[in-house]
Description:
The complex is a heterodimer of chains A (261) and B (259).
Chain A: H1 2-14, H2 16-44, H3 54-71, H4 79-84, H5 88-92, H6 97-111, H7 113-127, H8 133-164, H9 168-181, H10 193-199, H11 204-207, H12 209-216, H13 225-255
Chain B: H1 2-21, H2 23-48, E1 53-54, E2 57-58, H3 59-79, H4 81-93, H5 96-101, H6 106-112, H7 117-120, H8 122-136, H9 141-167, H10 169-172, H11 179-189, H12 198-207, H13 215-222, H14 226-253
Antiparallel strand pairs in B: 1-2
Helix pairs in contact in B: 2-3, 3-8, 3-9, 3-13, 4-9, 9-13, 9-14, 13-14
Amino acid sequence: MFRFSVIELKRQLAYPVTFIIKLILPSIVKILGVFLIWQAVIYENPGGLKDYSASFLSGYSILAPAIYVFLRPEHGFIIREVYDGTIQRYFLLPVSFFSIAFSRHLGFLIARMPEILVAFCITIYLSGSQLSLFQFLVFLCFCFMSSILLFLCFCAAELVSLVLEEGWSISHILDRIVMVLSGMAFPITMLPDSALKILQLTPFPLMSFVPTYQLLNPSGASFSFEIVKLLMLYSVWILLFALLSHALYETGRKTYSPYGT
Amino acid sequence: MIKYLKYLLLFSKFSFMRTASFRLDFWLRFIMDSFYYLSNIVFVFVVYSRVSTINTWEYSDYLVLLSILFLVDSYQMTFISSNCWSFPSNVNTGKFDYYLLKPINTFFFTFFNTVEVSSFLNFVFSLPFAFYVGYINDFSAKQILTFILVVVLGCVICSCLRILIALYNLWSHSPYGLERLWVNLYNLMSLPDAVFPSALRILFTFLLPILLVAAIPAKAIKENSIDLVKALILACFILCVLVAQVWRTGLRFYTSASS
């Protein structure tokens, strides 16, 4: 696993210009879109909105999109291999497909670490929050869990292409759903109560809203049962998506006919 | 002109035949774009459930912006997008060489040879939405005409920008080019110009004029400004000239992938 992570890290950093154009610039533009609209809202409401202070919204508008764009796997990380047929090498290798894919995802995350750190520092500066060590560690833990959850969720969506030979649209649809329902663009607590109740039964809030809220909410500074509950929720959803991905991979492996063979 | 319309009809026929072979893809593409439209509407709805205006832009004004953006997007997804997506890989793999040899205008063939029939369905969403927005804003006849004009101008400006971004590959030869950047620039196109700080507003109005696609057209309707419409026509003309110039320079610079 370590070797695959290192190879992926080297691959990402081998072409710095491509890395900047393909990953950093689009991410900045995406975060900028969310940040600008909330800054305009804060400009008109300097005292903040009901239930949300201006500093919270400022910090949220940077960190929530940053968590999503930096922690999610690269778009098409499986589909491309399905389409060009290179995925068949995993069928022959004596290593699990998922361990290789996850190692590569880790390498990808390490390459993006400086961006995550910059986003984190800007958030802390804008929100002016006083971080405790405990809060920071729980935030890191939630981010790591979110990363695994995002990886497995997109893994499942992209592995559909092994079964149906159609995956791009499904992956894009999931991307759009996650962007709205994960709280990437706005705190999900702004949704009507009935919608929020339904949303809490899904894994989406765990992907961006939960880590962001943990860092920016003052009540996240001390231990509470809520944190344990959230960690358990993460584990359950990770397990479910792992099982789904595994089932899709095994089904697809049996039916897949590689392109060109 | 009629010759090229006939070609376009022929390309549409081929695209329809191809699409008919991949029916699941056809519907999934439509669902994918519908989700894009819906996510924008949900975002605007949530923000305006907390505030009444965003820098003088009211909810109804924002919907005008979105309706223009959706119509422009429906057009560009149908006619331009697939061709621009495939352009970097065509240049990268050398397939573009064969385009140059065809006895047809290379520019037209490169950027209009695929008509995405599934994306044409997006008009099923964007047109009724535009009618709805016109209804709730109680558009006058003059505003309706301005709306149609700015949508057409938005389509031309968006196509020019999209093609300019794709043409960058004649120099970079990268298999992906600036495609991802373009996709994310779409997020900024859905914002009113008033939310941009002045430096960014200048950047996105004059240097990388993405605000001219939907934000400024919506502002022209909001403020009933003929001057803004004239500015859009001028920008449209400049961008068309720029695209033609960059295309000619790019072709002179182009060396095949195998050379």
